[in-house]
Structure formats: structure tokens, C-alpha cells
Amino acid sequence: MSQPPLVLSIGDPAGIGPELIVRAWLASKAEGLAPFVVAGGSAVMRDAATQLGLDSPVEAVANIANVADAFSSALPVLDGLDGTYSPGAPSKESALLALASLQVATDLAHAGEASGLVTAPVAKANLAEVGFAHPGQTEFLADACGLEPDDAVMMLAGPSLRAIPLTVHVALAEVSSLLTTELIVAKARIAAAVLRRDFGIAAPRLAVTGLNPHAGESGKFGDEEARIIAPAIKLLQDEGIAATGPHPADALFAPHSRAGFDAALCMYHDQALIPVKALDFDQGVNVTLGLPVIRTSPDHGTAFDIAGKGVANPGAMIAAIRLAGEMAARRAHG
To answer: How many CA atoms are closer than 13 Å to the CA of 100, on its beta-carbon side?
Structure first.
């Protein structure tokens, strides 16, 4: 391998994470995926493959240096952490393994022993019961890298669209009070820098949505566009960043409009996630921008209701691994 392997956290082993990881390894050669290793759970992986009738050898490896030799013939899993495969039955034990795997994987990525991190889905409520004090994995990673939560920017990326929610897991009623010109400018700067470095886009084009219907319609439906959003766009343009808007969100994601930008900056969670999931549900990837490490994740949850039934689509997991590998290669050769 020309660079270190990727590391995958196992996610909640009661969810669809284990079977998606196994299926991703089985497809790795055909999909041209970079080599990867799972942070713990070799027995979980073996049991998932066996119960689903998947012909996937699993090899426990002592350290990440052994991944290169193992990957072509078996799914490598770091020794030391393990648990029970109990699809559809989350427990304290499954949450503890999810948290321990995330910690190990993060440490490996932060230390440079892994070229990037791919996180499988977790159940935030279950993690909270075992001491996880963060709103989500993104905030955990920011803290682990010594950053403030706002320094980590969520981007949802699919074949059709990249979208960034500027406010994320907050009530819709709070969005207007949380939006500031400074917030928009700061996150847009991070997005532009990452699109240049990790996506190979020399001059990223950012389309900024409005908050209100019809982008406020000249103040008829609110003043956030004129008071907060337009000044941010002007500042970005003055810095040489190709930002446009505020755009009415109901028209921005039509096919002819999407061709005119590289990423959309959206004012709230659903404004960004609905179009990505409508267009690219089975290939959507959650990318964390602004970290010193590369982090991607499939843009879906644990799906406890279908875990272990063999019907979960591995497309988003494969896409997350592929994107992490591509980003790592650009950083290595940049």
C-alpha cells in the first residue's frame, strides 16, 4: 500500500453496520476500494457473515501494520475489542463496543496510523446511556482533535449533490436566532478549503440558500436574507470565494440549477438533507469538513428493524469508503 489503510469503526453491532462492512469488503476489489481495517469485533463480523450466508473470511490482526498482508484474502479486524452479534437487539454491551471502536478508530486516524476514518452508524440515545457526552460522532471527533464543535462542518455528499447544513441538530424554532453572518462565513471558508484540497476542485462554487420561502421575497417573509445571509455572501465574494445567493431553496436543487454549483450551504438540517436523501439515498455520504483527519460515514442510521435480514443496501457504506480513500490519496499527493 502506498499509504496507510483506512480504519472503520464498527458502529452499533446490533444495527446494520457489521453486515454493510462485510458486504463492502466482498465488493472491495470490484469497487476499487482502498484497503481498510475494522476497529474491533472480529467475532461479530464472523457471526454476521455466517448468519447472512456471506462468504467472507475474517482475520484478526494484532496491529494496523498487518492489514496490507491480510486485506486481499480476508476482512482484517483489529484484535482486542469484541462483542456479541445480536441484530435488532441493541443493548448496553452493543453500545459499549460501538463507543470503544469509535475511540480506537479515532486515535488511529489522529495519530496518522490510518489514512482516514469511516464511521458506521450508531444509536446516539444508546451511547448516551454508557457515558457518551456528545450530540453525535461529529462533535466527538472535533473534541478528540482539540477543536470546538463549530469547527467541524457536516457535508452530505452524493453523486448528484453536496449540501452543508449550517445549523444541524437543533429545533427549527431556534434556527433564526443561531444564524449569524460570522457563522456562514466561517463554515463557507472551511467548505471551500476542503473542496479544493480533498475534492480537487480548484475554484469551488458555493450556492447559499435563503432561510425563508422565496428567499424572503425582498423582506416580505422575513429579513434574515438581507440582514444576515447577503452580507455573508458579500464578504465571501470579497475574499475571492465564488459564493452566490441567497437562493430560494425550493428551486436550487432542480437539475439545471445543480449544474451551477459544487456545494450548497443550507440554513438548517432538513433543507440540506431532504434533497440529498431524495436524490442519493443509497449513495449518500456524511463527510466531516475542518478536521485534521479524514472522516466519512454512510448517510443513514442503524436500521435496527432490518438488521440481520440481509436486505440492507451497502451502497452508502461503499461510497463512504471510496470517498475516504479518494480524499486520503489527494492529501497524500497534494
So the answer is: 15
Q: What is the identity of the amino acid at 278?
A: A
Q: If pLDDT is split at 50, 70 and 90, which confidence band does 49 have?
A: very high
Q: What is the b/e burial string over 245-282, where b = at least 16 CB atoms within 10 angstroms of the residue's CB?
A: bbbbbeebbeeeebeebbbbbbbbbebbbebbbebbeb
Q: Is there a common fold for 1-147+292-334 and 153-290?
A: yes
Integer Cα distance of 306 and 309 in angstroms:
6
Chain-wide mean pLDDT for the chain? Answer: 95
Cβ(301)–Cβ(201) below 8 Å? no
What would the mean pLDDT of 37-47 be, rounded to a whole number? 97
Residue 216: what pLDDT? 87
Which DSSP symbol is given to 212?
Answer: S
In the chain, the amino acid numbered 44 is V
Q: Determine phi and psi for 74, rounding to 5 degrees.
A: -160, 160
Q: Per the confidence metrics, is the pTM higher than 0.85? A: yes
Residue 330 reports pLDDT greater than 80: yes
The answer to whether the CB of 221 falls within 8 A of the CB of 212 is yes
pLDDT over 90, % of the chain = 90
Cell numbers linked to 334: 497534494
Residue closest to 1 by CA, chosen among 119, 115, 117, 79: 115
**Which CATH class for the 1-147+292-334 domain?**
alpha beta
> Where do the structural domains in the chain lie, given as residue ranges?
1-147+292-334, 153-290
Copy the grid coordinates of residue 149: 464543535
Is the model's pLDDT at 2 over the cut of 80? no
> Count H helices, E strands: the chain?
15, 12
| Residue 147 burial (10 A CB sphere; 0-12, 13-18, 19+) | middle
Set of cell numbers at residue 72? 486481499
Q: State the number of CA atoms in the 13 A half-sphere of 96 facing the CB.
A: 7
H or E element: which one contains 209? strand 205-209
* For residue 29, pLDDT beyond 90: yes
CATH superfamily of 153-290: Isopropylmalate Dehydrogenase (3.40.718.10)
